[in-house]
Amino acid sequence: MTRPAIVSDPVLRVSMAILAAGALVVALKLAQDIFAPLMLAIVVGVIFSPLADRMERLGLPRGAVALLLIVAIFFAAAALAFMVEPYITTVIDRLPSIKYELRKLMFEYRGLIQGLGEVNREVEQAFGQGATEGDMADMPSMTDAIFLAPVIVAQMLIFLGGLFFFLLTRSDIYRWMSTRIGSGSDTPVILERFCAAEHTVSRYFAAISVINAGLGLAVGAALIAIGVPGAVVWGIAAALLNFVLYLGPASVAAGLLLSGIVNFDGLMSFAPMAIFLALNLTEAQFVTPGLVGKHMRINPFLIFVSLVFWLWLWGPLGGIVAIPVTLILLRLFDILGDRPNGRTTLRAA
Predict the structure, then answer these.
(1) What are phi and psi of 337, to 5 degrees?
(2) Contact between residue 39 and residue 321 where contact means Cβ atoms under 8 Å apart
(3) CB burial of residue 177 (10 Å; 0-12, 13-18, 19+)
(4) CA distance linking residue 153 with residue 151, whole number of Å
(5) pLDDT for 232-289, tens place per residue?
């Protein structure tokens, strides 16, 4: 008995795989309010899985472990928000003066801008006399906040619920997926790959978290030394945004340039940005390759493509999950291979 053509014909199989992948991407894009927090919950659950295993080995029930980790994450986020809130309030209060400094800067350097008359008119409208009466006009209104609040609350509930149930049942999920993907003797191998992917992502984020914390401390201390207002917030921002490759450091550099223009004169205006770029380049070129590169080497182009795709798909949240999802997929498809010395490198095709 011949097999159906849809199975035996490689062209049809490839075509169906492409159509299925396209449908999946469209579904992820359209339902990002649901899938994005769920994916983040899975990534966070994978990152904290070694800690959860250790807590279970101490005799704690799996449900209690999941609940304790969620409570700890919630209070850590709340403590961070409480610490940063005074600085954010100060920045909001200073928005009128920041706009004035930007308008002043545009007028000082308007002679260097040629052929951008339309842009200049738009800038004058944004920072001109009409803006002084409503400097906060571009801030979200109360109505916007009221309509946005339910969406944020729903995403938070999806994230917390997804994180709890993933931590509670992740072993069962791995076994179920291994039996569905593999068959017979392949099932233990696939299950081992799931565990290896979990270990790889957790180890990577443990190393990156330590590196980013050190970067944040260095940036904050350096900015305090030169008298930048809100240096503590800039240090925290440098540490957190460094998890989003490329885009995060670029955002911090742009913000520090603006802060330097507002708070300093002359060449000193570029000092905050220059300090951050020097520290960030040191971290990227020496510290991270020294600590992470010994265990994990992935093609930078692959990382860049993954980052661009996930940023397009889900915005900043996609930038956070891009690297973990890439590492998980590489490990599951056995693209990352372990050498005898324990290093993990990208296999050549």
Answers:
(1) -120, 140
(2) yes
(3) middle
(4) 5
(5) 889 999 999 998 878 889 999 998 998 888 888 888 989 999 999 999 999 888 887 7
Is the four-CA dihedral 232, 237, 240, 246 of positive or negative sign?
negative
Specify the DSSP element, H or E, that contains 337. strand 336-338
Given CA atoms 38, 44, 46, 52 in this order, what sign does their dihedral have?
negative
Tokens of 36: 């994005």
> What angle in degrees, to the nearest 10, is found between the helix axes of 316-332 and 247-263?
150
| Calpha distance 326→323 (Å, rounded) | 5
Contact between 41 and 166 (Cβ < 8 Å): yes
Cα angle 50, 239, 69; round to 5: 30
Q: Any bridge partners for residue 336, and if so which? A: 346
C-alpha triplet 33, 331, 337: angle, nearest 5°: 160
* Spans of all domains in the chain: 30-111+142-346
CA distance 35 to 144: 23
- Which residues does residue 338 pair with via DSSP β-bridges, in sequence order? 344
Q: Which amino acid is at 115?
A: G
Spatial separation of the C-alpha atoms in residues 176 and 155, rounded to whole Å: 27
Alpha carbon distances (Å) from 310 to 25, 214, 240: 10, 27, 18
* Global model pTM greater than 0.90: no
344 has which bridge partners?
A: 296, 338
What SS3 state is found at 148? Answer: helix
CA 217 to chain centre: 19
Give the span between the Cα atoms of 124 and 131, in whole angstroms: 9
User: CA dist 220 to 224, 272, 281, 316, 317, Å?
Assistant: 6, 10, 16, 23, 25
Neighbour-count burial of 164, counting CB atoms closer than 10 A to its CB (0-12 exposed, 13-18 middle, 19+ buried): middle
